[in-house]
Structures are given as C-alpha cells and as structure tokens.
Amino acid sequence: xxxxxxxxxxxxxxxxxxxxxxxxxxxxAYRYFERRLRARGLPTDWVTGMFIWVVVAAIVGxxxxxxxxxxxxxxxxxxxxxxxxxxxxxxxxxxLFGIPTGLVLxxxxxxxxxxGRALDIVAPVLMAAWGVGRLLGPQLMVAGGGAxxxxxxxxxxxxxVGKRVPxxxxxxxxxxxxxxxxxxxxxxxxxxxxxxxLSATMALWGLARFFEEHFxxxxxxxxxxxxxxxxxxxxxxxxxxxxxxxxxxxxxxWLRRSKPDSQPDVKGEAPAxxxxxxPVSATPGAVVG
Length: 289
Hints:
Blueprint: E1 7-10, E2 13-16, H1 17-39, H2 47-69, H3 71-76, H4 91-109, H5 115-136, H6 167-188, H7 196-217, E3 220-223, E4 226-229, H8 232-255
Antiparallel strand pairs: 1-2, 3-4
C-alpha cells in the first residue's frame, strides 16, 4: 500500500491535504459547538468571532509548544519553525492557548454562560473534533506514522521508510471512545455538578495521551520529514498526561460535594445531525449572522 498523497496541485497552487484536514476539523468543531449551545437555549450569534480567535490561538500555541519540545532541532533549522504543513502541532499547546482564549471571549460575549457550564459544553466538542482531526490531520501529513513495525496493522506514510504504527488512527479511536463516554455521562448522570463532564474529559484524555506516547510513540520524535532521537518531548507529554489524569480524578471527587447543576443538559444530544434545526426548547432566532 502506498502512502496517502500529502499534497496536490491546482494549477500553480500547491494544496496540502494536512491543511484541508485541519480546516474541516475546525469547521466541524464550530458547527457542533454551535449546535450544543442552541440545544441548551443559549444564543450563538457571538460564536463565529470567538471561534476565529480560538483557531488562531490554538495553532500558534500548538506550534510553539512543539518547537519548544524539539528546540535542539529547530535551533539548527530555524527556517522550518513555521512549516506546519509538515506536521508538528502539540495537542497540549493548542489547548493551553485555545481554551483560555475561548473562555475569556465567551465570558465577555455571552455573560449568561457560566465558566463551569461552558467547559462542560465544549468538552465533548473537543473530543469529537480531536478524533476527526487525527484522521484528517496527522494521518495525511509527511512523517505522520509512529514507530517502525512489521505488524499487520502497520501503514506506509510519506517521508518514512517501511511500515509504521498508525498512531493517528489509534488516537482517533481513543478520542471517539472518550467522546462516547462523555455523551453517556450527559444522558445518564443528570444530577451532576457543573464541571463534572470537564473533569471526566481531563482524566480520560490525560490517561489516553500517556499510553499513546509511552507505547506507540516512545522516544522517537517526528520532526518534519526527519526522525530524530529526542527524549524531552515524549517525556513532557507523558508527564503532562499523568498530571491531567490526576487533576481530572481529583476534580471529580471534589465536585461530588457540590450541588447539582440547576440547568441539566438535554437528553439525546449528539453530533450526528449537525446543521439540523434546533429543538423546540431552543431560543428562537439564535443563529449565526
């Protein structure tokens, strides 16, 4: 099986499939978040402007943390720092920059949306979008595979010799499983405190990131089309994953003492009908301008 093409030409223009995948992922996240707001009777006219800033902040943060984690490489090749079409976006960096930006703007433009409820609404969006993004992003970029393997499930990736562990597919599967668990929590744990869905997301995703990095990526850091030995990046990801898991579990136990949210989520909400009409209980006229 040949590697998936990572770019193609439209006249003189070079189009990178990695970039198209990221664009589709951001659009999916935007539409699904908007739908979840409408399903809860919240206005959505502020979402478009906020989302543009979140996308910019997430990409900048994801690239910045990747460069810091692989500083020895980029200090020797500074011209490749902005080459994001070759891959190299840190998930933790994207969250570190993107989520605070979104929360600040949401608080300013939708004051009736509390911080805890906003995080609970966006958490499943992040997991669903993360799964889509793994399939349409790293799976379609240069050097997108993990460690070399001779197993039956190995795949060929552009810029890498031999079959590789299909880490993007594994990460997508993990993200979709976490997303399904979060939806089950929303449907069956109705009397829960605000922030409970977020804490479950933190615990599950942190644990998944630790296992993914420890078992499938190891100490081999993918940098552009070159594979270099770097222990710092993988260790940082594993430590961050375990820290996020511990924080999520701790927050879940702490929230058990809190009062249930007075505005429980609607039942049966899922991304399968993105773009469909909002339920009857949604605020009339709350659409993007």
